[in-house]
Structure to design on (431 residues):
């Protein structure tokens, strides 16, 4: 049954079965929006003294035929500030799971009953106890009937050692899978110096039966003022330097790669003959390629610089085009979007860049590659201060040569908060 499942997944990816694929960052198990998205759902951090001050899910009308195009049409506050960060749909795309890195609560929104007006239907408030001490739910990633959640920390020392946690789509706890460490490799092969046990993102290549995880830092660092953090030499050594290759079916770590400098978002190739994934390292500003060679062996290799690494541009997000030809990279410190030609993934070349704002964090692009969206907030205590604390969602048209503005929303002016991650919605998914 395991190999039959892999064969069916591969056939679906080759022949475009509607059950596979999605906008480029998301799970291959989900239906994709191949045309115009109707909505952008923005998981937003509350700001004290601004509006209700709470974290919230903000819905933006993204359909240019609509009278409210480019406007906020709905908000759902969750009460309090939880360090809203990442979110992800279930495999049937009916529910959006959104996590808080500080309180470790997970908020589940119904996005299918009325896609224009999502509603909060469940809160998981025992994530730490059920998982056995995992803190900071980060990526919420769809597997068949399951959500796999990457943690950032733990409740013993609030450092970077953490785990993957599995739930059913109904929000019931299934299992915890701790990251391999030097004192417990769990059968994984250590290919370099590190087995730090840190976590961040998770992505799957189902046709190869593998998952990849990356690594960041623990609660005591990500909830600390950024200016103070970078002056603390000891704290700056407590960032992840690894990626782990897992057996997808068995949820078992297989190999540990050295990827120094906090590898963050993972984006895997979509073409069935492209056996690789990409990441970027925040602290060393490099693109890394994790690839399967002709002999069936996996490797990790730094393949390009991002901007000038000596200036610490802090790359924070990446988005691969659906044809695997180009890769968007955002750098937080200079507020710039970079586009790389990755037609040869071993030799990426920057072909375009544009300053988006004083700071920029997440980038999301449509499946057809014609629209690119950017949001501004990294973490509540890492965002810039004063006039550079711009908080926005900006949408652009991409014509293959340059970005041109579609709309921009000032989240401070609208009294909404700090916009972090964006997900797309469409009426047609639920008809």
């Amino acid at each position: 049954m395991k190999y039959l499942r892999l064969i069916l997944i591969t056939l679906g990816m080759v022949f475009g079965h509607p059950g596979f694929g999605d906008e480029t960052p998301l799970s291959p198990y989900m239906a994709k929006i191949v045309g115009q998205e109707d909505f952008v759902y923005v998981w937003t951090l509350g700001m004290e003294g601004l509006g209700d001050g709470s974290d919230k899910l903000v819905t933006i009308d993204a359909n240019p035929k609509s009278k409210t195009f480019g406007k906020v049409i709905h908000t759902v506050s969750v009460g309090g500030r939880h360090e809203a960060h990442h979110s992800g749909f279930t495999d049937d795309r009916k529910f959006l799971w959104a996590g808080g890195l500080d309180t470790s609560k997970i908020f589940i929104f119904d996005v299918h009953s009325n896609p224009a007006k999502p509603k909060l239907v469940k809160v998981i408030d025992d994530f730490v106890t059920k998982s056995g001490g995992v803190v900071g739910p980060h990526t919420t990633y769809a597997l068949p009937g399951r959500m796999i959640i990457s943690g950032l920390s733990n409740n013993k020392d609030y450092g970077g050692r953490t785990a993957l946690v599995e739930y059913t789509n109904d929000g019931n706890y299934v299992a915890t899978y701790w990251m391999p460490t030097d004192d417990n490799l769990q059968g994984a092969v250590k290919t370099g110096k590190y087995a730090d046990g840190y976590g961040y993102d998770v992505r799957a290549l189902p046709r190869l039966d593998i998952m990849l995880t990356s690594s960041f830092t623990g609660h005591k660092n990500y909830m600390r003022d950024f200016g103070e953090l970078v002056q603390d030499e000891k704290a700056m050594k407590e960032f992840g330097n690894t990626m782990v290759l897992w057996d997808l079916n068995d949820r078992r770590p297989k190999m540990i790669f050295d990827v120094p400098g906090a590898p963050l978002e993972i984006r895997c190739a979509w073409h069935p003959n492209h056996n690789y994934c990409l990441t970027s390292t925040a602290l060393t500003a490099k693109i890394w390629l994790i690839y399967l060679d002709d002999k069936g062996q996996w490797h990790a290799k730094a393949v390009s610089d991002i901007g000038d690494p000596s200036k610490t541009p802090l790359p924070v997000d990446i988005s691969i085009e659906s044809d695997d030809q180009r890769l968007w990279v955002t750098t937080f410190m200079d507020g710039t979007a970079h586009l790389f030609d990755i037609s040869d993934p071993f030799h990426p070349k920057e072909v375009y860049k544009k300053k988006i704002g004083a700071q920029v964090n997440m980038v999301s692009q449509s499946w057809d590659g014609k629209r690119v969206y950017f949001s501004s907030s990294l973490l509540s205590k890492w965002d810039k201060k004063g006039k550079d604390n711009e908080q926005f969602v900006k949408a652009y048209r991409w014509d293959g040569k340059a970005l041109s503005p579609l709309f921009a929303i000032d989240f401070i002016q609208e009294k909404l908060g700090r916009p972090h991650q964006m997900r797309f919605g469409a009426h047609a998914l639920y008809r």
